[in-house]
Design a protein that fits this description.
Blueprint lengths: L1 H22 L14 H7 L13 H11 L11 E6 L2 H10 L11 E8 L11 H19 L3 E2 L2 E2 L4 H11 L5 E10 L17 E2 L1 E5 L1
Antiparallel strand pairs: 1-2, 2-5, 3-5, 4-5, 6-7
Helix pairs in contact: 2-5, 3-5, 4-6
Length: 211
């Protein structure tokens, strides 16, 4: 009787394990995804200035913002702020006011990358916010491309006329400086990436030594 009970329990255990594997997955999946590799995103990213009417999903916008906030930052100050714009009236006002951001009028969404001076370092490192916000910007551009979107970096700071315009339209407080405006959406154009590799731009160990 004990032998039969042991065999029954062993069979039940094996059955339970198999049932757990096939009917209660752990969350891991071998299914292929549409996400491209980091190097593919870097090598194939290019500026996109024309977009379809398709709205960008909120979850993708959050993924892109998370990517921006994952950028390196001096002493982890994170001296950045982001303004997401999807109001067509605001987009049109910015497009009419900024000379190199006319594509905002047709973009479904834009992200304004700003420096927050209240979080910036003091002294000689005060302007590191520019590097930090620029690193965040590149992450945003790569994430957008990796998610199938097109985007373009349109500069604001240090051209103070553009900074003043963006501040006025968006109601930014004095400690917030707009570094750039990034229109984005699903691409309505095909733009081949440029091969920017130039060996002559690299030196090894000493400026006199070619790479």
């Amino acid at each position: 009787m004990k032998r039969i009970l042991f065999i029954f329990l062993a069979v039940w255990f094996v059955f339970s394990v198999v049932l757990g594997i096939f009917y209660f997955p752990t969350g891991k999946s071998d299914a292929p995804t549409n996400e491209m590799s980091v190097l593919d995103a870097i090598y194939t990213r290019t500026s996109i200035r024309s977009y379809t009417d398709k709205a960008v999903e909120p979850e993708k916008i959050e993924q892109i913002l998370r990517a921006g906030m994952s950028a390196p930052t001096a002493r982890n100050q994170q001296p950045w702020a982001f303004v997401v714009i999807d109001d067509k009236a605001v987009m049109t006002q910015l497009a009419d006011s900024l000379p190199y951001a006319k594509m905002l009028a047709s973009a479904p969404v834009a992200i304004v990358v700003c420096g927050d001076l209240s979080k910036a370092l003091e002294g000689e490192g005060a302007t590191y916010w520019i590097q930090d916000a620029s690193a965040a910007t590149e992450n945003i551009l790569l994430a957008a491309h990796g998610l199938g979107l097109g985007a373009v970096w349109t500069g604001a700071y240090p051209v103070m006329a553009r900074v003043k315009t963006i501040r006025h339209i968006l109601g930014l407080p004095s400690q917030i400086i707009p570094l750039n405006v990034i229109p984005m959406g699903y691409p309505d154009e095909i733009s081949a990436p440029k091969d920017k590799w130039k060996r002559e731009n690299v030196r090894k160990n000493n400026w006199a030594n070619a790479y």
